[in-house]
What does this fold into?
Amino acid sequence: MDDELLKKFFAGQCSDEEHDRVLTWYQSGKAEKELSDRIETSWNTIVSDSENTWEKENVLNDLLQRLPEQLQRQQTKNPSPRGLIYKTAFRYAASLTILLTIAVLWYIFIKGSDDASSMLPIQFTHFTTERGEKTQFMLPDGTKVIMNADSRIRYHEDFASVSERVVYFEGEAFFDVAKDPLRPFIIHSNQVTTTVLGTSFNVHAFAGEDIIVSVVAGKVKVQKPLEAIYLHSGEQAVYGMSDRSLFKKSFDPSSTLAWKEGTLYFKNERFRDIVKKLERWYGVSIDVQKVDIEDGFTGSYHHKSLDEVMEGMGFVLGFDYEIKGNRVIIK
It folds into this structure.
C-alpha cells in the first residue's frame, strides 16, 4: 500500500474511492503482514536507544487514550461523509489489537516518528516495595502515596511541570491526590486507567488479580478501552481479569483500607488468596502440603506476627504449620 495514500487516509483527505480502496486492503489478508512489518520498523527506530521493556505497552496505552480525542476533533472540523472516515475505520476495528494498530499507524503517518518519540519517557523516577515492606512518600505535586507490600510506581522526571500528572502503577496503594483543576492525575494499571483532579482513593492492581479502585472522597473516572465509569465517595470499580468486565459497587472502607493501619483483614476468602496476601505481607514463601483446607475464612489481625496469625488460622482451619526462616510449611 502506498504511503501517501495511507497518510491521506489517516488525515481524512481521501476521496470515496480511495477510502474504499484502503479499507478493502486493510481487511484483506495482504494487509496484516505489511502493517506488522511497517509498525515494527517504525517502532524499532523510535526505541532503538531504550532499554526499558515497559515502554511499548505504555506508549500503546497512551496512543489509545489520545486517539479518540483526535478523531473527535477531526470529525468536528469536517462533518462531511468523507470526514466520517474515522468512524468507518473504528467500525471495522472490532478488536483491541486493530485499535492499537490504527493508533500506531495514525502516529506513524500523521504525527511522525519525531512526535511519537516525544511521548516516550526518557527518564523515570521509581518507588518499589518488597514483600513484607510498606512505605509512604510524596509525589512532586504534593500527592501523598501510602504503598503496600510488593508494589511498584513510576512517573516521568518532568511530572511536576507537564499538563497531565501520569503514573504507572502495579500493586496496592492509597493515593491522596493534591488538587489541581488544570492538571488531571492519571494512573495506568494494566488495561485500566484511573483519572482524578483531587481526591483520595485506593488502587488494588496486583499482576494476575482483579483491579479494584475504591474511592474514599471526591470523584474518579475509571476506564478500560472503549468503556468508562464514574465513582463517588463509597463506590468501588472492579475490573475482572478473567472476563475483562468493568462494574461498580459500594464497599466497606474499614475492611478495604485496613492494610493502611497495619491490619490483615480477610472476609469469606479462598485459602489460596489468603496465602498470597500472607506471602506479600510478611515477605515469606508458603508451601501448602495439606489438601482440602476449607475456603471462606473470615478474620482480622492487627499488628500480629506471622506466628500469631498462623496459630490462630491453623486452629480455625485445622492445620499445623512450621516456620523455617522465610519459608512456611502448612501440613
About this structure: The mean pLDDT is 77. The first strand starts at residue 124 and ends at 129. The two ends are 64 Å apart (CA to CA). The first helix runs from residue 3 to 11.
